Amino acid sequence: METQNDPHRPTVPQNDADIVVVGAGLAAAILALRLAALSVPPRILLLEASDTPFGDKTWSFQRTDVAPGVEAWLDHAIAAEWPTQTVRFADLRREIATGYASITSASIARAVAATGHITVRSGARATRLTPTEVVLDGGARIAARCVIDARGHAPGAAMRTAYQKFVGLRVRLAAPHGIAAPVIMDASVPQIDGFRFVYLLPFSTRDIMIEDTRYADGAALDVDAIEAAIHAYAAAHGWTVEAILQRETGVLPVVLGFDRHAFWAGASDVPKIGMRGAFFHSTTGYSLPDAVRVADLVADAWPIGSAALADLLHDHARRRAPRQAFYRFLNRMLFHGAAPENRHLVMQKFYRLPRPTIERFYAGRTSVFDILRILSGRPPIPIHRALRCIPERAPRGPGPEQPEAIQ
Ligand SMILES: Cc1cc2nc3c(=O)[nH]c(=O)nc-3n(C[C@H](O)[C@H](O)[C@H](O)COP(=O)(O)OP(=O)(O)OC[C@H]3O[C@@H](n4cnc5c(N)ncnc54)[C@H](O)[C@@H]3O)c2cc1C
């Protein structure tokens, strides 16, 4: 048995940090950067199971996803930024004057280190989380006034999903590619495995991320086949790949049904952020805008203990639920209303909408007026199939979300 006087006890819990975040991924980094910018920053400890805190990813966002004011603490983490973006479909090419920015694992790690207030411990796998303590693999204990769970997405019975899956190659080309702004969707490519598009991030004249994405029913990712498709895309554009600088793969949830009550029913007093807390956009699977909002919420409430923060986040989840319910309805239209080869038509119709409606959609701030706009006009799918997508079959539990008003 372990006692306070046991000499073999690995560490004595005496608030090693003010806040411990388990899982050094995107949500943890964003929260830590936000708290480190407070006038009296807390002692922040990030615990990461792997040897590579923040992984090896590129996280992008629309500039309008985040409220003005984040520049003071988030901009240090940005690796590249562009004033516009474009989309390409079979019958639509559009340049959109919405800024786009990318954060890389390396750029966020640098920003975290530069604060001087954040300690990152890698190779630290948590096996038990309580509101005041984290137990690590091997038995070490770390105490804090606030413990947060940011261990990433955990698929569960409360969520029914399809997938946004992709392989990305950041490559150096032999000659300039000629792409000035990010291509958020080039859906003029042959449609395979559901809705397919290529995503381009031009980091410099010859350094470009080429990502082949599919909105598919199944999670299986044939990395070799998709890499071959990326090389074919490059060749078709006359690009010669000189070197592969980075590879990334992702299989993100596109939520078709969610029982929020079941999801939160078994929740403990340990607050969950990021994908762990289902704080991501139901259609894009992206979590950066939500991570910024949650970071603001925590910073405004700081200092706060675990249990009070868990309540605050639960309340936040309730407030964002109506919009997410609408996005899930759109997902069902995309996946169940349209035949796989016609899914691109749904997205093409979406991209004809006014820019502010598109911006609010990505930001997760769709208004009632936007909903009317999105649903108006001739639907790209048969009306009887669209109507069948309205009811939300709850994955488990008493029934679909109770309707709540979008303000
Ligand atoms: C390749 C890729 C690209 C993406 N691009 C974008 C994008 O452009 N924009 C966007 O908004 N979203 C993007 N996403 C989606 C989503 O935002 C990311 O998955 C994001 O990283 C989620 O952040 P998170 O902090 O919730 O989880 P993660 O970033 O996955 O972090 C969770 C961390 O917890 C660690 N961990 C797990 N268990 C333990 C444990 N027991 N103890 C300690 N540590 C543990 C993991 O090792 C991991 O480092 C992308 C996802 C992928 C996979």
From TrEMBL:
UniProt keyword Signal, yes or no: no
Keyword Transmembrane helix: yes
Name recorded for this polypeptide: Lycopene cyclase
Species lineage: Bacteria, Pseudomonadati, Pseudomonadota, Alphaproteobacteria, Rhodobacterales
Entry superkingdom: Bacteria
GO biological process: carotenoid biosynthetic process
A GO MF term: lycopene beta cyclase activity
Family per similarity comment: Belongs to the lycopene cyclase family.
Matches recorded under Pfam families: Lycopene_cycl (PF05834)
Keyword field: Membrane, Transmembrane, Transmembrane helix
Transmembrane segments: 19-37
